[in-house]
Amino acid sequence: MTPPPATQNAALTAPINIVATRPPWNQTFSSLKIRNYRIFASANLVAVIAVWMQRVAQDWMVLELSGSVTAVGITVFMQFIPSLVLMPLGGILADRYSKRLILMISQGSAGLLATTMAVLALTGNLEVWHIYVIAFVLGLVVVADQPARQVFVNELVGPRQLRNAISLNSSIFQMGGMIGPAVSGILITAVGGGWAFAANAVACSVTVGSLVFIRPEELVKMAPAKRSKGQLMEGVRYALSKPTIFWPAVMAGFFAVFGLSLAVLMAAYANNVFDAGAGGYGLLNTLVALGALAGALASTRIAVLRLRTVISAAGAYGIVLMFASLSPNMVTFGAVMVVAGFASLLFLTNSNQLVQMSTNVLIRGRVMSLYIMVLIGGQALGGPLMGWLAEHVGVQWAMLVAGGMPALAAATIGITLARRGQLRLRVNLRSLRQPLFIVPRAIQ
């Protein structure tokens, strides 16, 4: 599977931010010097903590109400299937209309859905089918929200600070992932999961308020795309024509279907293997987020965006999950989850950066919607699949598959790129730290 030759439109690309050396430590948070991004990032941290709280509470309540890991996978399917089908439409909206306005509407809608879930849960009327329906509607909201959110970061900070802002966004997401699951686990045990949904409703209101305080005159705005026929296919052709977009998207597909179903498998491990309960499930999510935060911060230290870094990180994540399937106890499993989180975010952050920086700003909304469609839509397929495997084949075997498929895909893509003359594998038996690594093939 190889992308077609580059087209003329493929040349219309924002320059990739390449520097010769790693940025100094005092530039790790450089994008926070921009007022609008500071406001957005602060509200985003609150929102992400609440989203993680709701995510853990939602998965655990489905497991409690149904007693089925497959049901947890179905919930994931319902939430992400709109992205698999409709996400390109969200990209067209992001290219045509105000990203700030789209985010205000989408976050307001998400707040109403969280309020509904909270009322149903706190009154004792929540049933599994309620969660399925609300998860599906929330998935429709995500279709509009995610492409606009990705492109809006460029408007907040401009192209010079885009890579740093993407890395910090990932760091914020993982900080929320450290705090949210732990708090949610405590809430579920102490007073019930309904309060996690209520907290998310409040957080959505905070996000809408932060968008009101952003100064529109300080945004780095691009002219909106005019309505015309074939805009969606233009984005598809553009993405297929560029290896730095095509290959990360292919890798993201395998990564999403198998590797990003980790939450479903951790619920099964906490409930069925280690008998750790909701608190244990929250702890495992926190440990993954701890490693992921380190991975996101590490991505700010990478001087040059490389395709081989993206593919290697995905392969490393797969190998780590394969080791996780052999974990004999909760302590070992938790330690491996930290490493898994690190490798996961190193892939996700660098892949996102490479795709965005390789895409012309005039078409970035459509290209990012296609990338997000693969990444999020893959989870719609992977959630039920991995849940079924965990329930009927065994959670250890499901974890082995979850890691083995991304590792195999990374190896296949690496060999394909090597055969095309772009990369080659070098073996260095003198180095225990990095005995195998990928380097550019020397020009003959």
UniProtKB/TrEMBL annotation:
Transmembrane segments: 39-57, 69-89, 101-122, 128-144, 165-188, 194-214, 245-270, 276-298, 305-324, 330-349, 370-390, 396-418
Membrane topology type: Multi-pass membrane protein
InterPro entries xrefs: MFS_dom, MFS_trans_sf, TM_effector
Major facilitator superfamily (MFS) profile domain location: 31-421
Gene3D superfamilies: MFS general substrate transporter like domains
An example Gene Ontology CC term for this record: plasma membrane
Principal location class: membrane
Alphabetical list of SUPFAM superfamilies matching this protein: MFS general substrate transporter (SSF103473)
The name this protein goes by in its record: MFS transporter
